Amino acid sequence: MSAAAPAPALRRALGRWDLTAIGVNQVIGAAIFILPAQVAQLVGSWAPLMFLGVGLASLFVALCFAEVGSRFDSTGGPIGPARAAFGRFVGFEVGWMLWFSRVSSGASVINGLALALGYYWPVVSTGVPRALVILAVLGGLTWANLRGIKQTSWLVNFFTIGKLLPLIVFALVGVWFADWSRVVPTGPAPLTQLGQAALLLIFAYGGYEVTGIPAGEASNPKKDVPFAFVAVILIVSAVMTLTAAVATGLLPDVGATTTPIADASALIMGAFGGLLVSLGSVISTTGNNMGQLLSGSRTVYALAENGDLPPVFARVHPEFRTPYVAIWFTSIVLVVLALTGSFVFLAAVSAVARLVVYLSACGATLRLRQADGRDARVAPAQFTAPLGPVIPLLAIAITSSILAGATSQQLLSGVVALAVGAVLFAIATRGVQPARA
Asked: Which domains does the chain have, with CATH numbers?
């Protein structure tokens, strides 16, 4: 009797720049087109420096993700390090909060896309036409995700270039017309509002944590994941800081407008500039949803592969080699949240969920270093953040201070979400042994 054929596995087809595009695509969304005004309202002419400073702070956290990511070659990103450092339950909670933030954020973004299209075709912003737009876009993205990781990465690369191009054109043209005296900070920094601006920007820079999630589909994850994490932060910091600086230099009062990039583009490039930014915004939101579906489905797959969810979620399509059950499940939840508007109530949870993931990666960096040479199950790091414990400790301090600044509603919502995750873990793992140590 012949042996049974092995179960199909995910295809390793992603390179380092594919992983980088996935991260950049998640960080740069529609928010960049309005952020310069929001930050300027809080800190005035200090806004461009705030963009640069928060980019540096994000680099500290990203270096922790890069180090722990260099120890693993499996799907799930932060789940593996949290599980190895703190145990199965913490690993599940990190995965649960990670998936939760993906679907709630994705539902919010897809509604933003409907509103953006509604600017040109008002009929699609409400009612049945709005629902049809949401279903059509998510249906197309789901189909692309199902067809294969290489096809998905091509689309992500396209969307990433499509969203960066208008911002780069705006910056390169605007740099010649900007009044740079407006970019130089005047007067003392408004200390009471620096914290609010930093909190706003930390979440604007968020999303890079998904860079390592598809490591199980990367050709050389232990080397390429660390590269991608650092590259993502350097790219988005440069683009966001330059965009904010040019907008500040072009507009007499950047904080007085609700659409700073569109207004500044129209000022120097006329109607073409406005159209370019609008097109970039639509591409940006669509690409962001593509990434949410990619990272969300792989999170579900990773939890099932670990034995923390029913094994059906770890099924891989025999032809396309994609986690098709996890993709369908994540897509359906996204549609339900988007059409019902439930994501509005989940926004507070999403904010805390991201910080939980950050803290787990920073803590795991220190914990796994202690396990080196003592625990055979912990693979050695292929990349190590410099300066010993300094960067992980700084990253923990930064993340903790942001968490301390969260509202009581956000904190309560986060605790409730963690409690729900604990219940789900108890149900899903009842009498089931973990699939991986």
From this structure: 16-428 (1.20.1740.10)
